[in-house]
Amino acid sequence: MAARVDPARGVAAAAVLAAGALVTGALTARTARRMASPRKQRATAVLGVDLAGGTIRFAPTRDALLPGRYSFWFAEGRGHARVGAVLGVDDDGVLRELLGVDAGDLTEAREGRFNGWMWLSPESFGVPYRSERVQTTQGAVPAWVVPGGDGSRWAVLVHGRSSVRQEALRAVPALLAAGRTVLVPAYRGDGEAPVGDSARYAVTDAEWVDVESAILHALEAGANEVLLVGWSSGASIVLATAQRSRVREVITGVVLDSPVLDGARALLARGEGVPEPVARGALSLLTGPMGRLLGADGLDVRPGEAADPADLAVPVLVLQSEDDGVAPPEVAHRFAAARPDLVRLVPFVGARHTRLWNLDPDRWEGALAAWLDGDRPRLERLSAPEPASARTADPSRRAAGRRATRPRPAL
């Protein structure tokens, strides 16, 4: 005789399954939104400012303890200061060098946030520059032009997602020293361009066309050759430009800082802390029809690397932190290993995503100069992996007591 099934139990089991599916679906959607949105930095409290002595004291947050030099934003983003080396860490907080205040009253600041920009415009370098408009297929976008050399060799600098042109200014002094005229354009989706002002993850398959427009602008101004430099997702944009542009024959090299070479891997990293099936489900949502509702309209994060190393035709310099929490370093190493004839990777230890220059500007600029000069012995020394002991050392201990040199006022 067949066992009787209690209808009430069946209904209860179905309800449990339905509730579980709803919870999983809600968690997946929430994870997708988090993956598609810029990460919000936690504020760091300001404990004291000594303008005359050139120091500032912070609460001991992770950002405050990082070695190097950084932008510090306060007054809800209206104030900006530049901070340098960690001078000491004690019960009273973290004492850092204060390199300068560009906007706002720092003495009134109670808290703020760090980022890697350092400078707000080319005016900070004390050299002539021009504000121009680059004509793109979507309309005119703002750009800075900083003349250098004889005007025949240009560098086009491309910032990453959720950022703007200021992110690229750290490279300007080194490129001017190398005899390059520097062009720093906006592009669609960054808030300065005429279209696409979403704060969501919006790197698509179209931004490279705007970089091509910047190259055409340089050619019209007298350029004979162009170097492309990109940060984060801007690195994948310049790679696409080098491979697909109709004027790619004038591109003589590509520099990639913290490159997002695998968009899917980068997004999955943003889902850290949730079960992998949920993170992968969130990725499927973002790349499917629901992506528009979740803030990822036009998102192109196909599995695999954004650029196939086999398609490279120009030399590439990769600057990659072994501690990058956004762009997995193993992807960059695999990319470089696939084309040792064209790709040179210089590793950094302890740097945050796109903050390699901030941690060690001498190493960053030295690698760029050696690569541009074709100085293989020096570049090979820089390309050698740093000792494991350096990777595990406490950054605050490495930085304590070390004063940073002040930025060059002019070139």
From TrEMBL:
InterPro entries from the UniProt entry: AB_hydrolase_1, AB_hydrolase_fold
A Pfam family reported for this protein in Swiss-Prot or TrEMBL: Abhydrolase_6
Ranges where the record places region Disordered: 376-411
Domain of life where this protein originates: Bacteria
Keyword list, A-Z: Hydrolase
GO molecular function: hydrolase activity
Compositional bias ranges of the Basic residues kind: 399-411
Domain AB hydrolase-1 residues, every copy: 156-363
Full protein name: Alpha/beta fold hydrolase
